[in-house]
Amino acid sequence: MKIGIDLRALLSGKVSGVPVFTREVVREMIRSRDHEFVLFITGWSREYKKILEEFDGPNVKKVFWRIPNRIFNFLQFFTALPKVDLGVDVFFMPDMRPINLPKNVKKIVVCHDLSYMRFPQFFSLKSRIWYFFNRPKKYFRKASKVIAVSHFTARELKQLIGVDSEVVYEAPSVVSGSDSVRKKYLLSLSTLEPRKNLKRVIEAFGLAGLFGYELVLAGEGDSKVFAKLKLPSVKNVRFIGHVSETDKESLYKEASGFIYVSIYEGFGLPVLEAFKCGCQVLTSRGSPMEEITDGLAIYADSGDVDSIANGMKKIVSWSGDREKLIAKANEFTWEKTAREILLVFSDVVS
């Protein structure tokens, strides 16, 4: 089978979310010698070619179209040209982007979440315009197959768009371990955006009265949207901004607990990353994070500050078996994710 893969998700340079999914899945996929792979990316700067250099193999062909992405997207949205004909059987899209393919090519797309439909108010005007032109309902309905990253997201796809999907879980990339000395801080690591619920997290930390503890907030995001949150002023709350992969791992391994009570997620990969580092998690009840942690985490109502505060009190006094957290995280691997996606390709082509 000849498989085309869209690498444009890697252009953001971020080390979380969709870029991590794309990079890890593609790395594992191209290990398979049963298939040929054509990796596709566009851009004006030749720096984008460095992305292609990450992926090598005797069965890998790389295609770089030197065209500014804004122009390419405009043409794809409004003219259906140029048609991207790579001579492949299937074309894999790790996230939603405009592309026009030959009619005989099967398009497999991934849905990470439908937050832009559930909570459009959480997105900047620029992002809302982007999703408007991408037309999510048409995008997913026209795909040969949709892959959802959790059963929660699969239900959302069915309810909001009316499409069925295959569920394929993501996986943590950090190195496991639980022997680090735990320090007196709670960690929140995510993109800085309204649906991550940081305002309530900060309020809950102030309410919990955890003497001697810090709340460490890490991550980056849309500064204009984030500024509108009007975050409360609470003592012992520290913003550290963007962190590298190495620093992220250390933060997980030394934290007394990880706080991830997002209002809406499609999967919640940071929760598994924390588990893999032996770090207990406080996360949202009734979410996909509850689905993947399988009763091992501590749960709170994401809309209730008191509930989150009580969860924080529980997490600092938790003395359970960290090896169980690691074992749960180890059930999820990128090799397994890639293998299951390749099976979806085979089913669609056959």
The total tally of domains equals: 2
Largest sheet, spatial ordering of strands:
3-2-1-4-5-6-7
Which shape, going by the Cα principal axes? globular
- Count of alpha and pi helical runs: 15
CATH architectural type of the largest domain: 3-Layer(aba) Sandwich
Keywords:
single chain; 2 domains; 350 residues; 39% helix; Rossmann fold; 13 strands; alpha/beta
SSE blueprint:
Layout: E1 2-6, H1 17-29, E2 36-43, H2 49-53, E3 60-66, H3 69-78, E4 90-93, E5 106-111, H4 115-118, H5 125-134, H6 136-142, E6 145-148, H7 151-160, E7 166-167, E8 185-189, H8 198-208, E9 214-218, H9 223-227, E10 237-241, H10 245-254, E11 257-260, H11 269-276, E12 281-284, H12 288-293, E13 298-300, H13 305-317, H14 322-329, H15 334-349
Parallel strand pairs: 1-2, 1-4, 2-3, 4-5, 5-6, 6-7, 8-9, 8-11, 9-10, 11-12, 12-13
Helix pairs in contact: 1-15, 8-13, 11-14
Written description of the protein model:
The chain is α/β, with parallel strands linked by helices. The chain folds into two domains: 2-171 and 333-349, 3-Layer(aba) Sandwich (Rossmann fold); 185-329, Glycogen Phosphorylase B (Rossmann fold, 3-Layer(aba) Sandwich). Helix 1 (17-29) crosses helix 15 (334-349). It is globular. Strand 12 (281-284), helix 12 and strand 13 (298-300) form a beta-alpha-beta unit. The N and C termini lie close together (10 Å). The protein is 39% helix and 18% strand. The protein is built from 15 helices and 13 strands. The strands form two sheets. A seven-stranded parallel beta sheet has the order 3-2-1-4-5-6-7. Strands 10-9-8-11-12-13 form a six-stranded parallel beta sheet, with helices on both faces. The longest helix is centred in the last third of the chain and has 16 residues, at 334-349.
